[in-house]
Amino acid sequence: MLPHDYLTWMLADQPQEATTDRGDASGTGYWSPIEGEYRRDLMQLALGKDVQLPRVAGPDEAVGEVGSRARSFLGIDGSSPIAIGPGTGDNMGAAFALEIAPGDVVVSLGTSGTAFAGSSQPTKDPTGLVAGFADASGVFLPLVCTLNAARILTSTAELLGVDMDSFAALALAAEPGAGGLVMLPYFDGERTPNLPDARGSLHGISRENLTPQNLARAAVEGMLGGLADAVDALVDVGVQPSRVLVVGGAASNPAVADVAATLVDVPVQIPPAGEYVADGAARQAAWILRGGEQPAWSDVRPGETVSRDPQPVAQVREQYRQAREALYA
Fold first, then answer.
1. Which domains does the chain have, with CATH numbers?
2. φ, ψ for residue 289, nearest 5 deg
3. Which residues of the chain have pLDDT under 50?
4. Closest alpha carbon to 198 in 210, 190, 209
5. Over the stretch 258-309, which tens digit does the pLDDT of each residue have?
6. What is the full DSSP assignment across 39-64?
7. Backbone phi, then psi, for 140, in 5-degree steps?
8. Are strands 104-109 and 243-247 parallel, antiparallel or unpaired?
9. Cα 15 to Cα 246: distance, rounded to the nearest angstrom
10. Cβ-contact 243, 267 below 8 angstroms
């Protein structure tokens, strides 16, 4: 079972039947979102035998109650029943909290980066770029993950000897395209594209463009260039973006908002900072306690819409593409 399934099982005092949810089950590789069933044929091929697997619960299903041993361990007094929900994955929880609608693409900038969208139909991508996850509401969540995101910025700021506010000011002082300086930020290898042994590289260096301002800008453009490619991959499987929502720890950096608006052809919005994964978990709990249809949530504030200059888009994306293909075509 997955870690959150083990937590559910322990909270319920280790019942005979373990459970999981559609979101995390769809990330295992052996549960099919299309069929809504485990691929036991794959388990047989991998392990040479069948195995006991958690039951996949519905998105609004109470899978049990907190047991007496868990109550004692957690110091919970009283005897009123406490329902346990199925839980879900982090991106699924954030999507649930943001109430993403058709046309919404979320770019999440944490230690790693993700781009995902809601879909009423399961997605398949033979290239392997887009993972066809299930979501926390009963539909689907096509998603692309990159290995390098916010730590690109922190590592570059450390190299420049500045804090993050000063780093943002440096990046904003440079022109779009960083004077031709391009960073491929594969600091720890990369997941999308699949380049596990790659390392970061700096391209187009000249005496004129090798400045702190351009280096800071190239770091931001490199991080977001990979995620702009991720949005393109979602388009290739049928997603039709009408706006991009940028969330996560790095989203509060002013340079991130500014650069993001130069890399995609739809409006970019920065929702208010918040713990959207935890918010999604709380909404799931409320839905389970209420039962039936989803409650009418308070509207999620759309946040700031970043003004967009369409001119730099092609230039910045093209020089990023050329640098990547020069090494990894």
1. 1-87 (no CATH), 99-273+298-329 (3.30.420.40)
2. -65, -35
3. none
4. 190
5. 999 889 889 999 998 889 999 999 999 999 998 878 877 776 666 777 766 6
6. -HHHHHHHHSS-----EE--TT---E
7. -135, 160
8. parallel
9. 40
10. yes
pLDDT at 281: 95
What's the gap between Cα 308 and its chain centre? 23
Q: How is residue 244 written in tokens?
A: 């991009």
pLDDT at 36: 95
- Which residue is associated with the tokens 């004077």? 179
Cα separation of 202 and 89, whole Å? 34
Print the SS3 string covering 92-105. HHHHHHHCCCCCEE
In the prediction, which pLDDT does 78 show? 85
Give the Cα separation of 109 and 193 in Å (integer): 17
Residue 311 pLDDT: 61
Strands (E), the chain: 19-20, 31-32, 37-38, 55-56, 64-65, 83-84, 104-109, 113-117, 131-134, 140-146, 182-184, 201-203, 243-247, 268-270, 304-306
pTM summary value: 0.92
Active site residues: 90
Q: Which pLDDT score, from 0 to 100, does residue 301 have?
A: 61
